[in-house]
Amino acid sequence: MSGAVNHHKAYIPFLRPAPVFHPFRCLSFLLLLLITLPDLAHAVSRNVSVGIYENAPKVFTSTTGKPAGIFVEIIENIAKAEGWNLRYVPGTWAEGLDRLSRGEIDLMPDVAYTTERDRIYAFHKIPVLSVWSQVYARKGSGIQSLLDLNGKRIAALENTIQLETFTRLTNSFGLKFTLIPVPNYQTEFQMVADNRADAGLTNRLYGLMYARKYGLEDTPVMFDPAPFFFAAPKEKGDLLAVIDRHLAEMKKDPRSAYYAAMKRWTSDEVEFKLPAWLQVSALVLGSVLVMSVVGGFVLKHQVNARTAELALMNREMERRIDERTLTLKETNEKLRAALEDLEDAKERAEQADRLKSAFLATMSHELRTPLNSIIGFTGILQQGLGGPVNEEQKKQLAMVRKSSDHLLALISDVLDISKIEAGQLRVESETFHLAESIRKVEQAVRPLAEKKGLELYLDLSGDVGPVTGDARRVEQILFNLLSNSIKFTEQGSVTVRSRRDGDFLVTCVADTGIGIKEADLDRLFQPFQQIDTGLNRKYEGTGLGLSICKKLVELMGGTIRVESAPGRGTSFTFTLPVRPPGADGVAA
Amino acid sequence: MKKKVLYIEDNEQNLYLIQFILEKNGYEFSSATDGREGIELAVRSKPDLILLDIQLPRMDGYTVARHLRAHPDLAQVPIVAVTSYAMAGDRDKALASGCSGYIEKPINPDTFIQQMEAHLGTPA
């Protein structure tokens, strides 16, 4: 059988599985002969042998004995363009693969790619098609899921990816089945129909076409959509490059032979768009009427079949939706229970939090009373009010004073944090001059800077005027930032800049100190998070100051941020609104 | 003439500390250890300034301040709260009760006199 003799025609009888189409057969053969005559003119051409097996509609032998199907149409189209002489070698699937591995044929169609096969054969790159595998059974078999196949007799083509995947799938569910090997899908469907097998594996294309004919139906068990190719012996790889080139071109053009073939063999609706030559001939012969009548009949038939299939799918979907709904309800219940637990836990945590804050406030207060005596009497003695003090005593009193001042600072910070956490920190809303506050704090910290040999610069823009807020708290922030900067700077300078930016006054305290690692910047404003500098002994502090500053700035309607890099200094920038954000300044 | 300062405070150490500082700075010092006694003494001695602790037994400092202010002879005398109460609103509460000023405990011995003198001669 010469490939050159049947490019476009063999499909016609197969378009319609029923014998209804016999009247066309004679017609088509007649025309076949006519239009293929010019092909004989091809004198020089390459012989290409192609394996054929029975797997309609992908590849099969028509009732007239001609190869047909998607792969056949595509390779014939390519052969025509390339001037190849196709020679078909029919056989079973297994025989075809054997022949291919021995190099007896040049191409085998419909081969799914696997790495194992890739070691034996060559594949082209663009898949011809992708098909799902599906399990078919006799009508009313009751097979609804993979589990229903346990212990059943399954007919399948051997040595296929389909069977491999199916075996793996069933194994993973711990299922057992009896394999009935078959040479082709026709035998498989016949065996299922005759009750010699309970179900058969095939691809969906074949199933769609033939299941009804054998009284079979598709089960909901679908698996493994696989791409299929032509395979060639390793040494015949050049053919594959040509196939890829044509496939690429054909896939770009919706009117190409590729789409025509796909549409014809896979479309759920059967189209009656015949090639122009046949349409003309049919017109001439006046058979349009007959065709449309028959076409309508087949179309209706196909539509009915498809409708039934859709109804089945619908029922399956509904069942799944019911299952999911049930699962969702259960999940919802659990979530609700979990939420209630969380609510309780939150309540307990908040209770504990309030107790902690109250405790801290009381403690801070109680600690201040003895400090009043310690600091007060130390001061009296230092001032010489209690009598002359010698140098050694002065030195020791200074140490007592310094330690008690530090202790007081710690207590104040703890008190502030406890106020913040209890939501009791209030800020005043009064008009004051920020520049004056900055100068006041600068005067207070200047001795500290001078003691370390640091320069202290002020850079206040003329537009830094009155601002509404809590002057005492703003000074606390400035004092905190400035003493921090001085504390962490060994040489260089500390600079305070302030200017107006729209409705805000922006103040920045920048130093040339040791800087902060990026990883530590986030933790900087959290309470009780003193960054491990490895220098804690040297730079003592509570680790509370910055979190207090942040809260205070926010209470006054501003923001605070930090920029720093190790060894490159640090700059803290905070903003204050010129007008207050709202009358109420109570912490959240 | 020496200015007279009355300190109403129940803590002995605090009393002694303030007395010592004030006398060394040339003030005439008197004291009472509860509110009632303090009010009586104030009415009798008409001090130039009253230092008032808030956390007092029986009658708290806020109440004492209101009584002092209510007396016609004392309405103009500066009252400065000296307290370690430091929770939200304490300052406001003290001022609302009639105090002219507020000094937090622990006091700063270096600046205490200045802080107090800021209220002398500035009647409320």
TrEMBL record, chain A:
Q: Any keyword ATP-binding?
A: yes
Show the GO cellular component annotation of the record.
Answer: membrane
Which InterPro entries does the UniProt entry name for this protein? HATPase_C_sf, HATPase_dom, His_kinase_dom, HisK_dim/P_dom, HisK_dim/P_sf, Sensor_HK_Regulatory, Sig_transdc_His_kin-like_C, Solute-binding_3/MltF_N
Instruction: List the molecular function annotations (GO) for this entry.
Output: ATP binding; phosphorelay sensor kinase activity
Q: Does the keyword DNA damage apply?
A: no
Which major enzyme category is it?
transferase
Catalysed reaction, written as an equation: ATP + protein L-histidine = ADP + protein N-phospho-L-histidine
Which CDD domains does UniProt cross-reference here?
HATPase_EvgS-ArcB-TorS-like, HisKA, PBP2_HisK
Question: Which EC number(s) does the record attach to this protein?
Answer: 2.7.13.3
SUPFAM superfamilies xref list: ATPase domain of HSP90 chaperone/DNA topoisomerase II/histidine kinase (SSF55874), Homodimeric domain of signal transducing histidine kinase (SSF47384), Periplasmic binding protein-like II (SSF53850)
Keywords in UniProt for this one? ATP-binding, Cell cycle, Coiled coil, Kinase, Membrane, Nucleotide-binding, Phosphoprotein, Transferase, Two-component regulatory system
The cellular location(s) given in this protein's UniProt record come to:
Membrane
Per the record, the coiled-coil ranges are 314-355
One Pfam entry for this protein is HisKA
Q: Which SMART domains match?
A: HATPase_c (SM00387), HisKA (SM00388), PBPb (SM00062)
**Domain spans labelled Histidine kinase:** 362-580
Q: What is this protein called?
A: histidine kinase
From TrEMBL, chain B:
4-aspartylphosphate found at:
D53
- UniProt entry tagged with the keyword Phosphoprotein: yes
The alphabetized UniProt keywords are: Phosphoprotein, Two-component regulatory system
* An annotated GO BP: phosphorelay signal transduction system
- Which superkingdom does the taxonomy of this entry point to? Bacteria
InterPro entries tied to this protein:
CheY-like_superfamily (IPR011006), Sig_transdc_resp-reg_receiver (IPR001789)
Instruction: State whether keyword RNA-binding applies.
Output: no
| Domain Response regulatory stretches | 4-120
Return the protein name: Response regulator
